[in-house]
Amino acid sequence: MSFLKNSKFRLIFQISRLLALYPVNLLSSLLPSSSNIWVFGHVHGYTDNSKILFEFIQKNNPEINAVWLTQTRGAIDSLTDGKFYYKFSLKGIYYTFIAKNFIYATGSSDISPLVPLYGRHLYQLWHGWPIKKLGVTSPETYPSPAPLAKMLMTKLLAKKFKQYKLVFCHDSITKDILTEAFLLNAEQCSVTGWPRFDHKRKIELESKTNNKNCLTILYAPTWHTDETTSKNLQDLTSPKFITFLEKHNYQLLIKLHPLEKVTNTFKSKNIKLIKDGEAIEQYLAQSTIFISDFSSLLVDASITKPVYLFGTNLDDYKLNRGINSQYIQVYNDSFNHNAEQLINAIESNSVADFSVSLETNTCSRIIDKIKLI
């Protein structure tokens, strides 16, 4: 089991880093900061709500000095039209120390461990539709079922999220879910809509939709801490499913979660593994059909295309991770447990229905909220 898949090791690492960098975070708080400098980043690269808001500011808000900090030096080579710096470069450290506003989408790993402890404003955009349970509502959060371990983890998680001035939510449903999951105050959650679910993004996705003569199925599973993804891939690369792909002239594109590593090899010309590090956005826009088990991308994809649920461990996932009550019925009605069920669902167009209301002017609303702080 890898380091990242072991919740106990992750917790030990987070606490050790917090303690080791405490003097730096504390002393850098004494430095003056500028409210016009907004620092962005994302642990999985140039993506998500953060990317959309960052690009919006560049085009529409010249009074804001928006900076993006990358996780690796090499990531900068593929980025243009903006201020991109490696987080541990001289400029990356400089902006980390003097910026007032920090915009996150997952957690502290998005930007830099050097962010000053005091005198700065941190904001959380969140990184996906909360289909699965999060925070204190999910059994997977806790490294041990022991009461003391659960109490310490709950306090650590609550402290972690109290650092955010605002946590932005898409609607009342997502507000309720995030408030419960991270023990937030109601005032801390601001309903602005998420840029990923803005009417403008739907128009952009539709404009990039692939030619109907080139039929592609995009499979993007969520991250699992066990061998579930490998088992699912065995079903999707079985002779039965390959025959289905060939019959309908489909190409299956497989995009694994950035934290997922598998050793499967795919010999069929109808199956392609998208390389690690490649952004999923272009494939999401161009695909004809989207398949996943519990990834929040199911909701993104449902804006413009049919989506199907597929996996081998629905009952286990409900028990060990949890699915929010708002989506239990969708899973009970539409989950496909094997390749044969998935083929039948696609051929009969039995799609999973993730109803989501698109909002307008989400980026402007978020910016206005931050400026008022």
Question: Keywords for this structure?
Answer:
Rossmann fold; alpha/beta; 373 residues; 2 domains; seven-stranded parallel β-sheet
Write the layout of secondary structure elements.
Blueprint lengths: L6 H21 L6 E7 L7 H13 L4 E6 L12 E4 L3 H9 E6 L16 E4 L22 H16 L1 E6 L2 H10 L7 E3 L7 H9 L7 E5 L8 H9 L2 H10 L1 E5 L16 E3 L7 H6 L2 E4 L4 H5 L5 E4 L3 H7 L7 H7 E2 L2 H9 L14 H11 L1
Parallel strand pairs: 1-2, 1-4, 2-3, 4-5, 5-6, 6-7, 8-9, 8-11, 9-10, 11-12, 12-13
Structural overview:
The protein is an alpha/beta fold and 373 residues long. It is globular, with a radius of gyration of 21 Å. The mean pLDDT is 90. Helix content is 38%, strand content 16%. The chain has two domains: 204 residues, CDP-glycerol glycerophosphotransferase, N-terminal domain (Rossmann fold, 3-Layer(aba) Sandwich); 146 residues, 3-Layer(aba) Sandwich (Rossmann fold), CATH 3.40.50. The protein has 14 helices and 13 strands. The chain has a seven-stranded parallel sheet, sandwiched between helices. Strands 10-9-8-11-12-13 form a six-stranded parallel sheet.
